[in-house]
Fold these 3 entries.
Entry 1:
Amino acid sequence: MGNKSNPNFKSMRYCQGNKCHEYRTKDRIRGTKGAKYYSTRRRSSFYYSDNFCSLNCQNDWLIKNIEHALDHFGRTTEPKQVLCDQAWYKLCNWNSSSNGRNDYDHYFVNDLLGQRIPITEQQYDDKNITQPNQIQK
């Protein structure tokens, strides 16, 4: 049994799927002989948005609540845009050379500008470098 005063203790929570208790799986069966029932799953952690025990439960909740959530948090009413100078992303391609050596090529790519700039593996791994103009020459 866990101790709530322990910082590593993770309390058990229930799946938020509004139909979780209706899915007839053996791990949802609770109660004693003669008084059994299906129950919402209880876990210390969930895979789906950390609130749902399955994709079915997540989708059930979304179908029921998506309109309300969009009305509450706001709907997109105009297209969002990424301009040319903000459209850079990092790309890593695996290649095999004729001498049997396998290697990776690293790039900054901007499809809007049609540019591909080679970078080092260290520059590729550096989360602070997000555009080619941040590279020290």
Note: The mean pLDDT is 89.
Entry 2:
Amino acid sequence: MYLRNSNDYEKNEIPKTKLTNISVLSPDSEKDFLVRKISMSANGSMPNHTNEIQHQQYVLSGEAKVVVGDETYHAKEGDFIYIPAGVNHYYETCYGVGYEFLCMITTKEDTIKML
């Protein structure tokens, strides 16, 4: 067990994104699920893509346009987003502020397909 501030984790750029980075908060030994913190600066984006695993996301701060399948959302602090496996999704911080969220996934192998 441990307690650690999420701001103390290493941030890494996510390939093919704009002004977006990721911190993996779960320990390397985790066998069931992973918690990641995604931080997008204002005018950042993550391109349209699919994953083979589902995502559960909780918005910590900011606002973003989040498109999941055919639905467009104005996501903001406190919102919860569920993205089923295989459904296309993308993000744009187009409201003049950054966007930060926790993304919870299983540890099953995943393939990301850019659209």
Note: The mean pLDDT is 96.
Entry 3:
Amino acid sequence: MAETKKKAKKKAPAPKGAGKKACGVEGCKRAYRAKGFCFFHYRKWRRGEIEGRPRRYHTCGKPDCKKKVAGHGLCQEHFDAWKKSRKGSEAAATAPAEAKPVEAPAA
């Protein structure tokens, strides 16, 4: 039968900045890796788990929605709802108005 191999744990990536920089998160003493974070906090930042820091991607402008922006600062779901609501209001605004008779110029 096939032998099962144990997976070796991955080591933390080598620090950048010649070890002179530290992680930007308060209380963390790990070496700098990228974007002002150590490898641990950089991964958290990529997943959007660090509050109070700019997110990796532009996210939807609706509260509590962390989906990626599709258009006009909204995710695809909220953008489609916004577009649908605009179509309804545009139809009402473009309803045919009464035609006004054109007056002949005074001579």
Note: The chain has a mean pLDDT of 75.
